[in-house]
Amino acid sequence: MDGSKGMFQRLSPRARVGFGVGLCVIVLIVGSLAWWVFHPRYGLLLGHLRQQDAAEIVHTLDQWHVPYRITDGGASVLVPADQVYPTRMKLASSGVPHGGAVGFELFDHSDYGITEFAQRVNYLRALQGELERTIDSMSEVDTARVHLTLQRTGLFESSTHPAKGSVTVTLRPGRHLALSQVIGIQRLAASAVAGLKPEAVVVLDQNGNVLSAGGPGDTSQMVVLDRSAREKQIEARLTRQAEALLRDALRTQRFSVSVNVRLNYDRIKEVREELLAQGRDGNGLVVSEKHTRTPGSPASSGDAGAPGASTTEIRYAHGREQTETVKAPGRIERISVGVVVPASLSPGTLEQLKAVVAAGLGLDAQRGDTVDIATFAAAPTSRSVPEARPRVVPPPATPLHVSPVRGALQLGPEGVGVSRASLLALATGVALLVLLLVGALRVRKRRQPPRLSLEEREIALARIRRWIDEPESVT
Q1: Which run of H or E residues covers position 166?
Q2: Phi, psi (5° rounding) for residue 174?
Q3: Rounded distance, CA 89 to CA 108, Å?
Q4: Would the CA dihedral through 16, 21, 25, 31 be positive or negative?
Q5: Mind giving me the DSSP string for 215-231?
Q6: CA-CA distance, 369 to 356, in Å (whole number)?
Q7: Pairing of strands 285-294, 309-317
Q8: Which letter does DSSP use for residue 40 in this model?
Q9: Distance between the two ends of the chain, CA-based, in angstroms?
Q10: 237-291 pLDDT tens trace
Q11: Pairs from 418-425 (Cβ < 8 Å, separation ≥ 24)
Q12: Which bin fits 414, alpha (ψ -120 to 50), beta or left (φ > 0)?
């Protein structure tokens, strides 16, 4: 112990700092490996959960004595990695989470002494819960609430009360329901409830906006709500097509494309009637022909009588052709495309680009579709700067992933984790390298000549002085 203490004291300040740093690194590496080996690794059980679903899952895990962790503000639940898949299957078999609604599992443990009224109420709750679960499975819907009024006929009443329903959906941020999806929700509810018609189901969003139709066969309101979304969808598709054409033609990213689509939601019915030419001369077929002759006036004395007049009356029959055309609402009325390209292009090239864009997007000049191409000049600079080409970074052959649970490196698209043996070998190599560095510093210190103490320095200095003061002997 005294020898090691003396050895540490004989080290220089720099060697002492290096020894301390190496010792700290070794302790840190050994502690990290011990934590890695003996600490269980957690994996994602379920994510993007609502608060009521997360609370139900946590309560079930507590009953099963399964360790867990909660992350993402309560939206994700983690369990030990080796228990992720067994726990998922166990939760699925138990019907957890229920999605915040009670379904037909309400009748799994029914009481035989329950009254008829309570039985009807339970059936209504179960039916509403099953519909809510089905609507919640849509990717655009976050939560849904369903309220039903079942059809009932009074014992002493002649009239029948029709079934009615209402659905309130809470949409995810940035999502919306299309016209076909709203109609699908109405038909889903109508198919599950006896005597319920699709138009009797009212669909609302979280802001209280009515998404469904107002009456039987009335889809005008839904069409108006879906009009903007459909126009944006068509504009986005045409913009992508135009950008692909210009990118291949110009071999540069210096251009801009804007597409505007106008839809016509007017329901138009056109009736057209034309006469068909028949007969040899095209006037029609002769049905009847009548000749009439009028006798002339009698002759007077010395004068000849006036000649009589003849009249011919012919009746023709014509064929008629009637055409009836009904234009459905939602057709494209006009497409306008604006393109901005560099000014270095020649007029002939601009005309070719105009023709290519019009043909590629399927524009119709008779309908009024237009394509306008404008040029822009580059900003003046002190010297010409070559156009910067986009740098294409090739994807790595083996993508690198970072585990969100423990920060462990994972290689490959399927996340094959680095083995603990490899990490232990790496840490051992680092520790040996640090020990070798400390040993090299100690060997270097030993090779240096030992330093004299203060007393030895005084003695050596006195000897040098006496040697200098002694007179030189003359031989």
Answers
A1: strand 164-171
A2: 80, 5
A3: 21
A4: positive
A5: STT--HHHHHHHHHHHH
A6: 14
A7: antiparallel
A8: P
A9: 59
A10: 999 999 998 888 888 768 899 999 988 877 778 888 776 666 666 666 667 777 7
A11: 420/36, 420/37, 423/33, 423/36, 424/33, 424/37
A12: alpha
DSSP 326-351: EEPTTEEEEEEEEEEEETTS-HHHHH
- For 154, phi then psi, to 5°, come to -75, 150
Q: List Cβ neighbours of 95 (8 Å cut-off, separation of 6 or more).
A: 105
**Rounded Cα–Cα distance for residues 397 and 421 (Å):** 24
The pTM is what?
0.43
Burial 361-374 (b: 16+ CB within 10 A, else e): bebeeeeebebebe
**Angstrom distance (rounded) from CA 103 to CA 160:** 28
pLDDT tens digits, 346-394? 888 889 989 999 999 999 989 899 999 998 876 554 444 444 444 444 4
Q: Is the pLDDT of residue 299 over 80?
A: no
Q: Of the candidates 35, 31, 22, 37, which has an alpha carbon nearest to the alpha carbon of residue 431?
A: 22
Tell me, what DSSP letter sits at residue 32? H
Those residues with Cβ within 8 angstroms of residue 75's Cβ, 6 or more apart along the chain or in another chain:
47, 48, 49, 54
Distances (CA, A) of 378 to 264, 381, 389: 40, 9, 16
What DSSP string runs through 392-461?
Answer: --PPPSS-EEE-TTT--EEETTTTEEPPHHHHHHHHHHHHHHHHHHHHHHHHHHHHSPPPP-HHHHHHHH
DSSP characters for 248-265? Answer: HHH-SS--EEEEEEEEE-
- CA-CA distance, 292 to 288, in Å (whole number)? 13
CB 79 within 8 A of CB 120: no
Rounded to 5 degrees, φ, ψ at 342 are: -65, 155
**Quick one: pLDDT at residue 406?**
39
Q: What is the pLDDT of residue 358?
A: 92
Q: Taking each helix axis as running N to C, give the angle between helix 116-136 and helix 179-192, from 0 to 180 degrees, rounded to the nearest 10.
A: 150
| Weakest mean pLDDT among 248-252, 418-422, 460-464, 465-469 | 418-422
Question: Under a CB-based contact definition with an 8 Å cutoff, are residues 336 and 361 in contact?
Answer: no
Task: Give the tokens for residue 382.
Answer: 């002190």
Q: Give me the residues paired with residue 69 across strands.
A: 78
Q: Is 102 left (phi over 0), alpha (psi -120 to 50) or beta?
A: beta
Separation of alpha carbons 371 and 358, rounded Å: 7
CB 48 within 8 A of CB 57: no
